[in-house]
Write a structure and sequence with these properties.
STAS_dom; Transcription Regulator spoIIAA; STAS_dom_sf; Anti-sigma factor antagonist; Anti-sigma_ant; 38% helix; alpha/beta
């Protein structure tokens, strides 16, 4: 049985999680649990480095969508980085690619998340 491993780092307002291995029905709950345990609070943006994930199934997609919804409800976002061909194909065929923040590089995803995590200037908006 293939294993699924994770690592993480915290940046201001952003949790970066790297996964390695296949995320499918037997392992999707591990991804969900790791995301829940690793982020410091619900309002944090999450960057998920999928560069070493060759396969996602519908169970994994469900975890990604639930994470996206929870983050969005709390004013944050889920950013996916460096999808391999299999996971990218799943997002295209299920038409969820446009719903999720997909970035071609980890650096691009982190930059977007950090920019989104910065507080808005008080009184800077137009009426």
């Amino acid at each position: 049985m293939p294993s699924l491993t994770f690592s993480s780092q915290h940046l201001p307002g952003v949790t970066v999680i790297a996964a390695a291995g296949e995320v499918d029905t037997p392992t999707a709950h591990l991804l969900d649990d790791y995301i829940s345990r690793t982020r410091r609070h619900h309002g944090e943006h999450i960057v998920l480095d999928l560069s070493e994930v060759p396969y996602l199934d519908d169970s994994a997609l469900r975890v990604l969508l639930q994470t996206h919804v929870l983050a969005h409800r709390n004013g944050a976002g889920l950013h996916l980085a460096e999808l391999q061909p299999g996971p990218a194909h799943l997002l295209r065929t299920t038409e969820t690619e446009g719903l999720l923040n997909v970035h071609s590089s980890l650096e691009q995803a982190i930059r977007a998340a950090l920019l989104a995590a910065r507080p808005s200037p008080v009184g800077g908006g137009a009426s």
